[in-house]
Design brief:
The complex is a heterodimer of chains A (about 160) and B (about 290). Chain A is of the alpha+beta class and about 160 residues long. Helices cover about 30% and strands about 15% of the residues of chain A. Chain A has five helices and five strands. Chain A has a five-stranded mixed sheet with strand order 2-1-5-3-4, covered by helices on one side. Chain A is globular. Chain B is an alpha+beta fold and about 290 residues long. Chain B has twelve helices and twelve strands. In chain B, helix 5 packs antiparallel against helix 8 and helix 11 packs antiparallel against helix 12. Chain B is globular, with a radius of gyration of 20 Å. Chain B starts with 6 loop residues before the first strand and ends with a helix. Classes of the chains: A alpha+beta (about 160), B alpha+beta (about 290). At the A-B interface, strand 4 of A face helix 2 and helix 6 of B.
Chain lengths: ~160, ~290
């Protein structure tokens, strides 16, 4: 089957099998930031943004994204605004392997694309589908909020 | 993962979708969000009909009824201002409890949730007490009351079009009480309650539980017991006891029958107490004006 989608701002027309999942399609395009995890909708390692919504790419068929826009971690410019978020994750020592970080960042990006100044509650809700196996304590929500404030140029 | 899937159709109209479903029944299934279907190891599926372009993704108010299109994502229902305002938050909370994960709620649709529901469906439980109806297209269009749909749960080549949720009267109160093993995962048992209060007397009481039997159930003995009585702590206790006495819960690896029976009493009491607190808050608010 042929599908036409926009992947990381580039229009693409691709030939896919009917049962190919979105994560398999993205891997075939060399987008390896999308990590294979539980394949069960529990871990969030495969999170990508489809038409502005964070979704699990392992639970979606490639044919479902016909005409849609897909964004992966490769599309985030870590040298600019998202540098603050990257720093927060880097300095948060409990995340040891970083396998899950791309998924977390995509969930936060989907939130920030929709809401300019999210509350702590909205941030926590946006991360309900992501898990990190390494963390021994709760995620650094306060630090992430601080990074978001810095991104928005609010240096209080 | 859908290893025998060969064809994928994107019908542009409901009649086209129905024709496909009726022609190939047995090896053809509907896909909308796809979160449950893609996850399933269903080797019998050869063809899929994608209904996401049938314009069934809507929430609108129409003559005292809120109409929710079957391909509306769960997150859209949670975020919708009308739904937040109309049902005392019960429908929003039930939808949120259906999937803890935001990503699943972004994809999963209300139609998919209702058609593939299992013994634990908080959403179904809430829709039962709200006396929602479903509209199904297939040959001719018809509506089924939610409890009938729940027990028959067959579309027989038809297509679930929309869910109709009636507006609640101003003096109606709702309560929802979930219990989960760790407070974070999906609830094990959940009670949903709705009642009207006229001069402090209960009318139109609806009590439903999910997670205790094969499908969510209403408890008419407890409802009758509260009907035409004042909503007091004593009567709430009586209604919770009536549920406890009549319930015959399932037992599985998650919880024993005894545990479920005991917890059922607690959650019903908690949900009814929420109605009582809301009514008291409202009367205090009125007195302060």
């Amino acid at each position: 089957m042929k599908i036409s989608s926009t992947i990381n701002s580039k229009p693409k027309t691709l030939e896919v099998r009917a049962n190919l999942t979105l994560i398999e399609l993205l891997h075939s395009q060399g987008l390896w930031s999308v990590k294979q995890g539980c394949e069960n909708g529990d871990c969030g390692n495969c999170t990508v943004i489809v038409d502005g919504q964070a979704v699990y790419s392992c639970l979606m068929l490639a044919v479902q994204v016909e005409g849609k826009s897909i964004e992966t971690f490769e599309n985030i410019d870590l040298s600019k605004d998202y540098a603050y978020l990257k720093e927060t994750f880097m300095h948060y020592g409990d995340i040891e392997c970083s396998y899950c970080v791309a998924g977390f960042m995509m969930s936060i990006k989907a939130l920030l694309d929709a809401i300019r100044d999210p509350t702590e509650e909205e941030l926590c809700d946006s991360l309900t589908g992501n898990t990190c196996r390494c963390v021994k304590r709760a995620l650094p929500i306060a630090d992430l909020m601080e990074a978001i404030r810095k991104m928005r140029g609010d240096f209080i | 993962m859908l290893s025998n899937l060969q064809r994928y159709y994107r019908p542009k109209s409901i009649s086209e979708a129905l024709a496909l479903l009726q022609k190939n029944s047995g090896t053809i299934l509907i896909i909308s969000g796809g979160t449950k279907l893609v996850l399933s190891q269903n080797d019998t599926v050869h063809e899929l009909v994608d209904i996401s372009s049938l314009k069934l993704n809507y929430i609108k108010e129409d003559m005292g009824v809120v109409r929710v299109g079957s391909t509306s994502p769960l997150q859209k229902i949670i975020d919708h201002p009308t739904i937040k305002k109309l049902y005392g938050g019960i429908l929003c909370e039930a939808t949120r409890l259906t999937h803890r994960s935001r990503m699943l709620r972004n994809c999963s649709t209300i139609g998919g949730e209702l058609v593939t529901t299992n013994s634990l469906s908080v959403l179904y439980c809430a829709l039962l007490v709200l006396q929602a109806q479903v509209r199904i297209a297939g040959g001719e269009e018809f509506a089924l009351a939610m409890n009938i749909f729940l027990n028959k749960k067959t579309l027989a080549g038809g297509l679930l079009m929309e869910i109709l949720v009636p507006h609640l009267k101003r003096d109606t109160y709702t309560g929802i009480a979930p219990i989960s093993t760790d407070g974070k995962s999906s609830p094990l048992i959940c009670a949903c309650v709705r009642l009207s209060l006229q001069n402090g007397v209960c009318k139109n009481v609806k009590i439903a539980l999910t997670g205790t039997e094969k499908v969510p159930q209403r408890f008419q003995n407890a409802e009758t017991l509260l009907e035409d009585r004042k909503l007091t702590s004593g009567n709430i206790e009586l209604a919770a006891d009536a549920v406890y006495k009549s319930i015959k819960p399932i037992s599985d690896n998650l919880a024993s029958q005894e545990f479920r029976k005991e917890v059922s009493r607690l959650v019903v009491k908690k949900a009814l107490n929420q109605c009582l607190e809301s009514a008291e808050d409202e009367s205090m608010g009125l007195a302060n004006r």
